[in-house]
Write a sequence for this structure.
């Protein structure tokens, strides 16, 4: 499919071909859901911890004698039913991560790109650079382009001045191509790709494009 290339000054800069094998799939919500869940679980710290009865600092002395009180029989105060006692089956540090194959994660990325393309929310710009490195200048440019919520993906390296100016703008994320991911693509309204990012995606999914061309 063809896509227009624009500049940050809202001027036309030609056209570019977006591969159907990357941007032309029929998006599947189940694949996207599994991928987003994988990312969210992987980022969880898993450092939650509750003390059980072997860890709490309480006396180990028997509360009162076994018989003759008319009350229930109790031992020490470390049991869960007493205030200050240990937690029964409380959370312990662990990893929440689940497994997804590398092939599935690559497929999910293509489905996310295709979902944005189908919704008409993929924008291609020539470069993501700023000569002044001023947040105010970028805000005006983004307002002219209608970018209220956008993920901007550049090539292998970011322009430092552009990234520094953009990081103070709400709902705008800037990542190199190595950082592209399903969660960030879906959480922003617009997906803005530089020409370098599109070329990097073509290289990354070269084998997929080759198989698609063979099937045709």
């Amino acid at each position: 499919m063809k896509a227009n290339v624009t500049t940050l000054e809202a001027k036309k800069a030609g056209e570019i071909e977006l591969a159907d094998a990357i941007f032309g799939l029929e998006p599947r919500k189940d694949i996207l859901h599994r991928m987003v869940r994988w990312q969210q679980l992987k980022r969880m710290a898993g450092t939650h911890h509750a003390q059980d009865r072997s860890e709490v600092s309480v006396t180990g002395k028997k509360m009162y004698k076994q018989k003759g009180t008319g009350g229930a029989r109790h031992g020490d105060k470390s049991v869960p039913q007493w205030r200050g006692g240990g937690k029964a089956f409380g959370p312990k540090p662990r990893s929440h991560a689940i497994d997804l194959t590398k092939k599935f994660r690559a497929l999910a990325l293509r489905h996310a790109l295709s979902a944005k393309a189908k919704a008409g929310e993929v924008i291609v710009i020539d470069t993501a650079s700023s000569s002044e490195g001023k947040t105010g200048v970028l805000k005006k440019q983004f307002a002219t382009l209608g970018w209220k919520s956008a993920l901007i993906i550049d090539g292998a390296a970011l322009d430092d001045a552009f990234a520094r100016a953009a990081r103070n703008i709400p709902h705008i994320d800037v990542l190199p191509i190595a950082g592209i991911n399903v969660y960030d693509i879906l959480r922003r309204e617009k997906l803005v790709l530089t020409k370098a990012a599109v070329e990097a995606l073509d290289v990354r999914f070269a084998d997929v494009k080759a198989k698609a061309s063979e099937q045709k």
Observations:
- The chain has a mean pLDDT of 93.
- Residues 66 and 72 are 8 Å apart (CA to CA).
